[in-house]
Amino acid sequence: MQHDLTLGAGDVRLVPLELDHAADLLTLVDDALWSGMTSPTPRTVADMAAWVRLAHATPARSAFAVLGPDGQVRGSTSFYDVDPTFARCEVGHTFYGRAWWGGSTNPACKLALLRHAFEEWAMHRVALRGDARNSRTLAAMRRLGAVEEGVLRSHRVAADGSRGDTVYFSVLAPEWPTVRAGLEARLAGPA
Fold it and tell me: What domains appear along the chain, each with residue ranges and CATH number?
């Protein structure tokens, strides 16, 4: 769905994902980066624009472009499966260009998203999930401080039709202060 949320933390701003972001996002992706996603790797601006349109068309999904301080597009991330009745949502559909792997971009995005979910929307549970074969993503979720809940076997269908397992993580409202402190410390850098 389309939305008007703008979030920020560290050196990133999360702005509503627009079709205008498609060309910049396309420059960030390749087969290896996109592996673990359930859609085919976008090859053209039209492919990426279709991915953006799908994000807009998906109920209970708020998709963002991730921008650096200079306005450069670093990637994309989303809230999805937002359910205020049960005070839960998920964070995902996330990818960043390799230039921002291992730096402050992911912790800043997660701080912005989780802060909004817990402190503005009063969520009780925020889930994250990843393809069991994507060790880099799973390590990032563990480093975030999310609790690993388990594996849903044969839960994902890749673009090539192969099936894979999904590893679920979550952060609950009582855990948020500790997770927030950890993210803020990571963004503050070495003491």
Answer: 7-188 (3.40.630.30)
